[in-house]
């Protein structure tokens, strides 16, 4: 199912190339006789320079790659639409936020940050969540992440931070990992990182799916209404499926089994018509309340607790179409925080101010010059008229005899709002009075680096705290220099003495002296413990064999599939298992690629190590396990050390309902077992 209805799709249609029933030509449109043999002197002689087809083919191949993004190199994109629920004209004059009848086309790119284009999807990292709205007033880019806070406060520190987390310069190790000395050296010397580091050590950094993660604009932006009145705003994307994560041991195994795990998941869901959805939520703060918080709204290492300023849900985004060509769309899409439309403006957040410079600059290099805005995926739907001219890859043929403003020769066109005497829909910068000295200095209101790190820690459920401690142990366990570990643990003492003590004990250091006292505040909205969840698109592995009792299985399958779960039959061999068509043979499958397991197959599977391992691993990773009567032998063979989330014939008629309820719980964290090697 594809959506051809939006204006953006119609615009892209002009550039889509369909090779069906076509003839092979050169780039000049000349038909080619043969592309398997180069032109040579005699059958065994040298290739000759005259072969323009050969030269063109090789040259084009040599030039296929462009520089990958310096950060967020690995990503996946999709098209969709956004619609606001009701007019927000009280706060903003942005047309797309004021007209509930309007569907605004969007292109969204999700990404990891640190890894190269070819790195695995499921690494511990922030995820990018960048949305391009093709509005009637021009393109608006909301370039966010799945964390609401950032590592540094000032854009001048971005290169330092990125250098520290990237592979180390002398040997380019490790790829797409934060578990190494330079990152943790940066962290211990730059305590403003500590809040975001807490998010990075939490399960937020290993999302189950791009469809199951939040998005945040991070900075405080400003909405501006038609009267020029400003309102501070934080943007949030809330996934309809809830924000869910993998567990770390699972992550390590997914990387080998399917490095494209998140990319594939997004692609397959859209192909299957299970269109991912997010609600747009706003936290709105009147200008006059700017200083009522115990942190600075301009500080990007701080969030506004939802308990203080609740989210107002204002619209919905649905992703409903996969790109036709990865390079043309996902790779060439160019986002920029400075792409705003009337009604949305910046604040003086020093990270945002720097970003507004960096994104245009990076596209000029990455996409080879100033005309990248004309690449189909980047073209606005709004008409573009100005006096910008020429440059590499200019696609437009400007017919005007003038390219300056003001002019009289072209009747003064294109005319600015002022010249045309028509201010309708022009972008007007928010009028803000600024008085100050030219200084290179961080505001003292940015100085508290720990209170919100503590708030985050306090808000975690016990299992989330456990995961955070284990994440610190993994990360610091990969740090070579002991003094760096000591310093990090010392910093942690400012977050929470118990956390610091646990980490210190794990890496063999004395517990640091407690610093101050934990303020005891929490924000329940920060926990992933109570996320909405459903059965739709959950992947269920049906372990089966020739002797599977299909009669008992079919009604369960039917109910799972009517709830839009995706069921795969996994058996010792491909082909048929009894009357069931097999999707994967068990040695080529892995439990980490599924959300739940249903055991069948009688004694036949008990001697199959892959099947037994499958069940044990699913248990270890907290997944729902069901056993039909003919699957209970396999359950026994797996010798599971607990029963939480394990449903068998004891459930009687309630089996399917209980199994589904166990799946919907996402993970049974109460049963995670470290002393149980899967
Ligand atoms: Fe950035 C890419 C998000 C800080 C400089 N950034 C990039 C992308 C996302 C973000 C989602 C990928 C866009 C895509 O899919 O093409 N970046 C953020 C967030 C930040 C942030 C949420 C903090 C709140 N970034 C940040 C700073 C700077 C940059 C402070 C520079 C001073 N970011 C870039 C960049 C990238 C980029 C180098 C690389 C590729 C690109 O822009 O197009 O310019």
UniProtKB/TrEMBL annotation:
<dbReference type="InterPro" id="IPR024708">
    <property type="entry name" value="Catalase_AS"/>
</dbReference>
<protein>
    <recommendedName>
        <fullName>Catalase</fullName>
        <ecNumber>1.11.1.6</ecNumber>
    </recommendedName>
</protein>
<keyword id="KW-0575">Peroxidase</keyword>
<dbReference type="Pfam" id="PF00199">
    <property type="entry name" value="Catalase"/>
</dbReference>
<feature type="domain" description="Catalase core">
    <location>
        <begin position="25"/>
        <end position="413"/>
    </location>
</feature>
<dbReference type="InterPro" id="IPR041399">
    <property type="entry name" value="Catalase_large_C"/>
</dbReference>
<dbReference type="InterPro" id="IPR020835">
    <property type="entry name" value="Catalase_sf"/>
</dbReference>
<comment type="function">
    <text>Decomposes hydrogen peroxide into water and oxygen; serves to protect cells from the toxic effects of hydrogen peroxide.</text>
</comment>
<keyword id="KW-0376">Hydrogen peroxide</keyword>
<dbReference type="InterPro" id="IPR002226">
    <property type="entry name" value="Catalase_haem_BS"/>
</dbReference>
<dbReference type="InterPro" id="IPR010582">
    <property type="entry name" value="Catalase_immune_responsive"/>
</dbReference>
<dbReference type="InterPro" id="IPR024712">
    <property type="entry name" value="Catalase_clade2"/>
</dbReference>
<feature type="compositionally biased region" description="Basic and acidic residues">
    <location>
        <begin position="1"/>
        <end position="21"/>
    </location>
</feature>
<dbReference type="GO" id="GO:0004096">
    <property type="term" value="F:catalase activity"/>
</dbReference>
<keyword id="KW-0560">Oxidoreductase</keyword>
<dbReference type="Pfam" id="PF18011">
    <property type="entry name" value="Catalase_C"/>
</dbReference>
<keyword id="KW-0408">Iron</keyword>
<keyword id="KW-0349">Heme</keyword>
<comment type="similarity">
    <text>Belongs to the catalase family. HPII subfamily.</text>
</comment>
<dbReference type="InterPro" id="IPR043156">
    <property type="entry name" value="Catalase_clade2_helical"/>
</dbReference>
<dbReference type="InterPro" id="IPR029062">
    <property type="entry name" value="Class_I_gatase-like"/>
</dbReference>
<dbReference type="Pfam" id="PF06628">
    <property type="entry name" value="Catalase-rel"/>
</dbReference>
<dbReference type="InterPro" id="IPR018028">
    <property type="entry name" value="Catalase"/>
</dbReference>
<dbReference type="InterPro" id="IPR011614">
    <property type="entry name" value="Catalase_core"/>
</dbReference>
<keyword id="KW-0479">Metal-binding</keyword>
<feature type="region of interest" description="Disordered">
    <location>
        <begin position="1"/>
        <end position="39"/>
    </location>
</feature>
């Amino acid at each position: 199912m594809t959506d051809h209805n939006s204006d953006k799709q119609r615009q892209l249609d002009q550039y889509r190339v369909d090779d069906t029933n076509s003839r092979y030509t050169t780039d000049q449109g000349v038909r080619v006789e043969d592309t398997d043999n180069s032109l040579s002197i005699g059958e065994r002689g040298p290739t000759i320079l005259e072969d323009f087809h050969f030269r063109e083919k090789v040259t084009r191949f040599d030039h296929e790659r462009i520089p990958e993004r310096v950060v967020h190199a690995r990503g996946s994109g999709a098209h969709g639409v956004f619609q606001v629920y009701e007019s927000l004209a009280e706060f903003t004059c942005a047309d797309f936020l004021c007209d509930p009848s309007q569907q605004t086309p969007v292109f969204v790119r999700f990404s990891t940050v640190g890894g190269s284009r070819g790195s695995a999807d499921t690494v511990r990292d922030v995820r990018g969540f960048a949305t391009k709205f093709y509005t009637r007033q021009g393109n608006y880019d909301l370039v966010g992440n799945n964390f609401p806070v950032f590592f540094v406060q000032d854009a001048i520190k971005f290169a330092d931070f990125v250098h520290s987390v990237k592979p180390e310069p002398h040997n380019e190790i490790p790829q797409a990992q934060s578990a190494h000395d330079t990152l943790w050296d940066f962290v211990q010397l730059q305590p403003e990182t500590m809040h975001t580091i807490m998010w990075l050590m939490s399960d937020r950094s290993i999302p189950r799916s791009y469809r199951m993660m939040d998005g945040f604009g991070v900075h405080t932006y400003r909405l501006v209404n038609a009267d020029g009145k400003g309102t501070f705003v934080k943007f949030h994307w809330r996934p309809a499926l809830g924000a869910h994560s993998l567990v770390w041991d699972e992550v390590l195994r997914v990387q080998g089994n399917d490095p494209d795990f998140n990319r594939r998941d997004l692609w397959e869901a859209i192909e299957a018509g299970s269109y991912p959805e997010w609600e747009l939520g706003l936290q709105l703060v009147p200008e006059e309340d700017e200083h009522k918080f115990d942190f600075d709204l301009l500080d990007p290492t701080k969030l506004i607790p939802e308990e203080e300023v609740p989210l107002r849900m204002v619209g919905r985004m649905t992703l409903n179409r996969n790109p036709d060509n990865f390079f043309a769309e996902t790779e060439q899409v160019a986002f920029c925080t400075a792409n705003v439309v009337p009604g949305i403006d910046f604040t003086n957040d020093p990270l945002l101010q720097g970003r507004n410079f960096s994104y245009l600059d990076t596209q000029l290099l990455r996409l080879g010059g100033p005309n990248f805005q004309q690449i189909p995926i980047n073209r606005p739907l709004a008409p573009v008229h100005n006096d910008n001219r020429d440059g590499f890859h200019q696609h437009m043929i400007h017919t005007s005899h003038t390219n300056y403003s003001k002019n009289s020769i072209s009747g003064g066109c294109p005319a600015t709002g002022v010249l045309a005497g028509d201010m309708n829909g022009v972008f007007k910068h928010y009028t803000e009075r600024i008085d100050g000295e030219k200084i290179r200095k961080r505001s003292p209101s940015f100085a508290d680096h720990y209170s919100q790190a503590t708030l985050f820690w306090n808000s975690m459920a016990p299992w989330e705290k456990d995961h955070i401690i284990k994440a610190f142990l993994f990360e610091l366990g990969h740090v070579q220099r002991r003094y760096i570990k000591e310093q990090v643990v010392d910093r942690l003492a400012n977050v929470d003495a118990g956390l610091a003590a646990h980490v210190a004990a794990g890496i063999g250091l004395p517990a640091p002296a407690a610093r101050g006292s934990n303020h005891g505040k929490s924000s329940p909205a920060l926990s992933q413990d109570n996320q909405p969840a459903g059965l739709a698109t959950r992947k269920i592995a049906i372990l089966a064999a020739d002797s599977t009792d299909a009669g008992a299985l079919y009604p369960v399958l039917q109910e799972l599939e009517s709830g839009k779960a995706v069921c795969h039959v996994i058996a010792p061999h491909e082909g048929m298992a009894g009357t069931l068509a097999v999707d994967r043979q068990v040695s080529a499958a892995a439990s980490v690629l599924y959300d739940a397991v249903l055991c069948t197959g009688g004694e036949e599977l008990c001697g199959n190590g892959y099947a037994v391992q499958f069940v044990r691993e699913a248990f270890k990773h907290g997944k729902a396990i069901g056993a039909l009567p003919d699957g209970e032998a396999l359950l026994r063979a797996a010798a599971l050390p607990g029963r939480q989330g394990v449903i068998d014939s004891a459930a009687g008629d309630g089996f399917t309902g209980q199994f589904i309820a166990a799946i919907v719980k996402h993970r049974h964290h109460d049963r995670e077992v470290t002393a149980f090697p899967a």
